[in-house]
C-alpha cells in the first residue's frame, strides 16, 4: 500500500515510518524542512517539503494514497487536516488512522476502548476532532497511545538523572502510568492500516503500568548501574520508612504544577491503568522491554 504519513520525522511518526517500510508498504511524507526530509528519505520515504496547512497538497496526497496515517496531531493542525482528509477519502475504502492519547480517559484503573472520557485540560481539544473522525463514513481508526517510551526519548527522559541533581517525582509518585514502547506502538499503526476497520478505536498499552515512583527509582538505579531498592528523599516518612537516598525527590502536586506547568502536571498526575487487551485480540503482540527495564538499563538509544 502507498501510505500518506504525517509526522514522519517525529518520535512516533519516525517509528511508524520504519514499521511501514519493514512491512513492505510505500510511504509519502510531508515535512517542513530539507533537514527533516533527509532523515525520512534515508528511512525509505518519498518526501515532499511543505506544510500540513496546505489543504490542496493534503487533499492531493490523500487521494493519491491507499491509506492516510496522521501522527502529527495537534490542536491547531487537526480541524482542517481531518476535514480535508475525510472529504478526500469519502466514498472510498481507504483507511484513515488518526492519533489520540491515553489522557483522554482521565483517571481510571481499567481503561478500555469503551471507557468514559474525562480528559484533562491539556488534551481536551482532542474530543471534538475525534468525534468528527468517528462520525465519518470513512474507514477510520483512532490509536490512543499510553506514555510512549523507547529509543531514549519521550516523557520518561524526566527520570534519567542529570549528574547529581535529584530525580523528581510528579506529585508523590503513587499514580500509575500506562505505557507502550514506541516500536510496539508503530506495529499497531501498521495493523490498523492493514485492517482498515470502520470506526476502529485502539488503546495502545503494553499492559505495563508502573507507578511514577517505580520509574524514578529505576532511573536512579540505571545511573548507578544497580538494581537496588533505595528509598525516597525530600519527604519524611515516605512509605513509612526513613529516607535513605537523596537521588529521588518527592514533591507535592502543587510543586509539580509550578515546575511543569499546571496543564502538563495535571495530565501526569492521572492514575491510569490499561492492558491493551482489545489490540492484542486483533493480533498485536508488544514484545519490547518495559519502561522500568529500560530505565534500569540506563535508558539508552538502540
UniProtKB/TrEMBL annotation:
<feature type="domain" description="NAD(P)-binding">
    <location>
        <begin position="7"/>
        <end position="152"/>
    </location>
</feature>
<dbReference type="Pfam" id="PF13460">
    <property type="entry name" value="NAD_binding_10"/>
</dbReference>
<protein>
    <submittedName>
        <fullName>Nucleoside-diphosphate-sugar epimerase</fullName>
    </submittedName>
</protein>
<dbReference type="InterPro" id="IPR051783">
    <property type="entry name" value="NAD(P)-dependent_oxidoreduct"/>
</dbReference>
<dbReference type="InterPro" id="IPR036291">
    <property type="entry name" value="NAD(P)-bd_dom_sf"/>
</dbReference>
<dbReference type="InterPro" id="IPR016040">
    <property type="entry name" value="NAD(P)-bd_dom"/>
</dbReference>
